[in-house]
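Table 4 source record.
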Amino acid sequence: MNFRLIAVILVALLLSLSVGLGYTDGTQIAPHSAGQSSSKDVLISAVFYNGYQPGNSDEAFQLINIGDAPISITGWSVTDNKGKVTFPTKILSPGDRIWCAYSAVAFQKTFGFAPDFEYGKDSDPMVPNMTGRNVRLNDKGDKLILLSDSGVIADALVYGNWNTNQTGWSGPAVQHYYVPNKSTKGEILYRKLDQASGLPVPDTNTAADWAQDPNDPINGRKVLYPGWHLDEFFQTAKFTEPADLTILVAPDNIFEAVKEQIEAAQESIDIEVYALEHAALAELLAQKAKSGVKVRVLLDGEPAFGMTDQEKWCTQQIEQAGGEVYFMINDSKAGIHKRYQYQHAKFIIIDGKTLIMGSQNLGYTGMPDDDKSDGTRGQRGIDLITDAPQVVAYAKHLFSIDLDPNWEDIFRWKAADSKYGAPPSGFSPDRTSGGTAYQILKPAPLALHGNFNFEIIQSPENSLRNIDSLLGLIAKAGAGDTVLVEEMEEQAWWGSNNGSSGHSPNPRLEAYINAARRGAKVRILLDGYFDPCELRVVPKGNEATRDYANGIAQQEKLDLEVKLGNPTGAGICDRYEYGSAHNMEGIHNKMVLVQLSNGSSYIHIGSLNGSEASSKVNRELAIQIQSNEAYRYLADIFDYDWQAPLP
């Protein structure tokens, strides 16, 4: 008997079993042959083809296992038909996503974390290497093909201007999606995600699988950039918990309540807002910093109307008192790429236990500090204060992500910096505040205590979902229900100024119109200050929205009406009152109220405007709360503003 032959056969059998049933680390994998259905569970899920680093060295692609069992991709390869790179030993567990980058060091500089593999030169010995000839992704267009260990096509992607005649692909190539004013450089192509599971939608080997799909206004027409946390925040956060809840109204009672919270701080004050131009609040924050309270402020470094000397003065006071002021900046010449088009969220966390959030920046027309016994003047807006533990913890986490100093777009105030430093020598801040044009409607905030249902919504990750979030809330409204909308901006359509509601609809506006079609009473009050003053005249502005929606209402006989107003200001065309866009009056609110005939009422407030950028590329924060009392309080505000004549 040939014992050596028998031994060889036994070893082969054991190896076969190890491949079919598991690995020496104890991980069990699904037995399969290349080309069987389980191999189709591994997909190309994202491609970063037009990177930020020199030579596009941060280019990368991502794979995902969408199946319900681990899969070995050992010996699998990725090719663009010019190069081909192969995986070493690797098992993907269900739901695993792995990034493979040309240069691990360059990728980490762009994304803030190391990839799982690199396929160019060995830039980081801690990151495993793929083997083979280098794949290089073309900025203008290319194809990427995933091959099983036996060479069978498991997945394919064609993008840009590349020839679509490729096995494993059908129809037009995936194209980048352009959000106005946001650079396409750095955009990540990624698969559409199922709103319930967070996993890619079923694969059809077409451009319709990808989030850039121009034919899908809800799950498509999306973008993704390095630094976003889509995996973590794709779904809204929902909490039910006991809490104190205080609703603040601007300009009526907001300043006094915010001032009181800041004065009460004992340990820390964390602020994330678009702009800070309120000299009195800046001085108060400086006093708290001097007293030992840790004060940190994150501002947008590229505001639409530029950095003002007023803001430079305010930030100088805080820094000189021992506080910390940071800006989220963009400087492409220096290789710094801002994560969001605008850091537009507006929230304050006091001592890690209390959250203030809503529509208002820290400016005089957003929070006038005048004696209001004879009236005031300013922007209409809504904030809230809550101690809901999970809501506050969520805001703290978001603040830590946005103010992560490891990101190059975070720049700390420096006195000598011409853009983010001290104001001109001898500068004196403008303290003009309030007026008498508007008589106070709500002298006191609404204070509530109870067990509340909260839903936190944020851009750019989850504000355009329609199974929940704002669109999901509006979808609940039908016959016998009421929807009241008061907003600074709700564009008639999205996309370019040359677009149309038919070609590139605004899903928010269409949701309001569809609620009216289902029988709901819908009233929409939009800002009448910006557009008439020609500060932002665009074909899709508020006036166009009014004409478009009212035209549909008249034609279809809907209980729907849109108006423009400035209920808390003195006029329509005062233009730049203090030399800053942040200090203009008008409706600055971002409020949606829904009352259902079943007895449930909801409020939606926050920083989220009705522009495409606000939903898709800005950092925004909003919250929805089920509360009949809050609805009634804010509905009073809406009714007053709706009936207020234009000055």
